[in-house]
């Protein structure tokens, strides 16, 4: 029995038999005869129907010039799958946090209705080791989950790592760790054999966060101190490096003398980090020179005369370099001097060194000292003290959670 596959194309479509007659001699142009466009379209349609390229929901009989009767399908539009993470889509994120970051986490949630705050019980056993509990853990399956961390001291890192390693294993859709301040490596110098790079150690630990159902975990860090540290992370984590500089730029636009701002960098390292984001401002670059046994800040290039000069760096610890920079800018005629750092660390209450100018000029103090809330313990210490002002990372974090 002949099958449909072995039948001729004409028979397959029910073609009529033509009467025999003399065959005309082929002309040179028709020596290699080609099928008519209509016949080719019919063949492609036939193949498309068999291969599932279209869906026929109905048909009608039509006849072409060659007498072939075709069943013209009524084509229904193909269903297009909805793409996760498409442009304009919003992720519903469950945000956990350590105790230090409670206030910032609440601000993040207030910025975006698609983020929901969740809690963890931070308890300890009698021997001092963590006794942790993730509330309603069964309800986070299949959800996007984030954790807002603060590694403000070595004593709080272990308990948070325990949570960070546990959350991705709860069958969640994706996991994001927000660590605004990457703390290690701020003072490390690899100069002698035996020096240990603790920043590399922490990066390795974070690079081994378990994967979730959606794949590798994401890691959000703001203004990492040493640029080479971004290469410390392995391929099992997706680091996302953000900056607090857009917060500063927005704040500077609100100042009454916003058209008289000059940016100063205390050293070449700060210039390398930030000059591209601030290149539309006039700039002053300072550096440290050695005089005898002292290292003194000097202006390397730029003119601060008559300008409101804002010193920009990624972090401050003792504050000695910022204060020396403030003095040299005042000596060279700056009208005002302010400062910005993303991470205000201030060990041993070193923030006490910074005084407001009280309108008496930059020789007496700073007009403004802006820091972000990446280091919550510092925020609690200086939030009501002049010249400090807090620029919140809540908005940038909320936006990063939608990536």
From TrEMBL:
<dbReference type="GO" id="GO:0005737">
    <property type="term" value="C:cytoplasm"/>
</dbReference>
<keyword id="KW-0545">Nucleotide biosynthesis</keyword>
<keyword id="KW-0547">Nucleotide-binding</keyword>
<dbReference type="InterPro" id="IPR000836">
    <property type="entry name" value="PRTase_dom"/>
</dbReference>
<dbReference type="Pfam" id="PF00156">
    <property type="entry name" value="Pribosyltran"/>
</dbReference>
<dbReference type="GO" id="GO:0016301">
    <property type="term" value="F:kinase activity"/>
</dbReference>
<dbReference type="GO" id="GO:0000287">
    <property type="term" value="F:magnesium ion binding"/>
</dbReference>
<dbReference type="InterPro" id="IPR029057">
    <property type="entry name" value="PRTase-like"/>
</dbReference>
<feature type="region of interest" description="Disordered">
    <location>
        <begin position="1"/>
        <end position="37"/>
    </location>
</feature>
<dbReference type="GO" id="GO:0006164">
    <property type="term" value="P:purine nucleotide biosynthetic process"/>
</dbReference>
<dbReference type="Pfam" id="PF13793">
    <property type="entry name" value="Pribosyltran_N"/>
</dbReference>
<keyword id="KW-0460">Magnesium</keyword>
<feature type="domain" description="Phosphoribosyltransferase">
    <location>
        <begin position="299"/>
        <end position="343"/>
    </location>
</feature>
<keyword id="KW-0808">Transferase</keyword>
<keyword id="KW-0479">Metal-binding</keyword>
<feature type="compositionally biased region" description="Low complexity">
    <location>
        <begin position="1"/>
        <end position="15"/>
    </location>
</feature>
<feature type="domain" description="Ribose-phosphate pyrophosphokinase N-terminal">
    <location>
        <begin position="94"/>
        <end position="207"/>
    </location>
</feature>
<dbReference type="GO" id="GO:0002189">
    <property type="term" value="C:ribose phosphate diphosphokinase complex"/>
</dbReference>
<dbReference type="InterPro" id="IPR029099">
    <property type="entry name" value="Pribosyltran_N"/>
</dbReference>
<dbReference type="GO" id="GO:0006015">
    <property type="term" value="P:5-phosphoribose 1-diphosphate biosynthetic process"/>
</dbReference>
<feature type="compositionally biased region" description="Low complexity">
    <location>
        <begin position="28"/>
        <end position="37"/>
    </location>
</feature>
<dbReference type="InterPro" id="IPR005946">
    <property type="entry name" value="Rib-P_diPkinase"/>
</dbReference>
<protein>
    <recommendedName>
        <fullName>ribose-phosphate diphosphokinase</fullName>
        <ecNumber>2.7.6.1</ecNumber>
    </recommendedName>
</protein>
<keyword id="KW-0418">Kinase</keyword>
<keyword id="KW-0067">ATP-binding</keyword>
<dbReference type="GO" id="GO:0004749">
    <property type="term" value="F:ribose phosphate diphosphokinase activity"/>
</dbReference>
<comment type="similarity">
    <text>Belongs to the ribose-phosphate pyrophosphokinase family.</text>
</comment>
<dbReference type="GO" id="GO:0005524">
    <property type="term" value="F:ATP binding"/>
</dbReference>
């Amino acid at each position: 029995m002949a099958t449909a596959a072995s039948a001729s194309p004409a028979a397959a479509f029910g073609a009529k038999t033509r009467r025999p007659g003399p065959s005309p001699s082929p002309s040179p142009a028709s020596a290699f005869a080609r099928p008519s466009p209509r016949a080719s379209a019919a063949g492609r349609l036939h193949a498309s129907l068999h291969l599932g390229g279209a869906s026929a929901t109905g048909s009608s009989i039509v006849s072409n010039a060659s007498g072939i009767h075709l069943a013209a399908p009524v084509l229904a539009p193909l269903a297009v799958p909805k793409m996760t993470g498409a442009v304009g889509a919003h992720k519903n994120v469950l945000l956990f946090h350590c105790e230090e970051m409670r206030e910032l986490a609440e601000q993040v949630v207030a910025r975006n209705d698609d983020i929901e705050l969740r809690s963890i019980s931070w308890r300890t056993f009698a021997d001092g080791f963590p006794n942790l509990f993730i509330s309603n853990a069964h309800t986070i399956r299949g959800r996007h989950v984030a954790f807002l961390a603060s590694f403000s001291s070595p004593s709080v890192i272990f308990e948070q790592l325990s949570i960070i390693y546990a959350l991705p294993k709860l069958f969640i859709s994706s996991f994001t760790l927000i660590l605004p301040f990457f703390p290690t490596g701020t003072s490390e110098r690899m100069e002698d054999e035996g020096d240990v790079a603790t920043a590399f150690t922490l990066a390795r630990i974070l690079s081994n966060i378990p994967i979730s159902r959606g794949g590798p975990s994401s890691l959000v860090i703001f203004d990492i101190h040493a640029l080479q540290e971004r290469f410390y992370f392995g391929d099992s984590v997706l680091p996302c490096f953000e900056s607090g500089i857009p917060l500063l730029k927005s704040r500077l636009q609100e100042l009454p003398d916003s058209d008289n701002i000059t940016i100063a960098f205390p050293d070449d390292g700060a210039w390398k980090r930030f000059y591209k984001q601030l290149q539309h401002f006039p700039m002053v670059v300072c550096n440290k020179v050695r005089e005898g046994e002292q290292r003194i800040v000097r202006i390397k290039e730029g003119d601060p005369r008559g300008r409101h000069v804002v010193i920009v760096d990624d972090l401050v610890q003792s504050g000695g370099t910022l204060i020396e920079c403030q003095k040299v800018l005042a000596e060279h005629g700056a009208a005002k001097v302010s400062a910005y750092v993303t991470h205000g660390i201030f060990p041993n209450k070193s923030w006490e060194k910074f005084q407001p100018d009280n309108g008496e000029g930059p020789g007496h103090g700073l007009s403004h000292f802006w820091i972000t809330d990446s280091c919550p313990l510092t925020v609690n210490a200086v939030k009501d003290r002049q010249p400090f002002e807090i620029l919140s990372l809540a908005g940038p974090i909320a936006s990063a959670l939608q990536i």
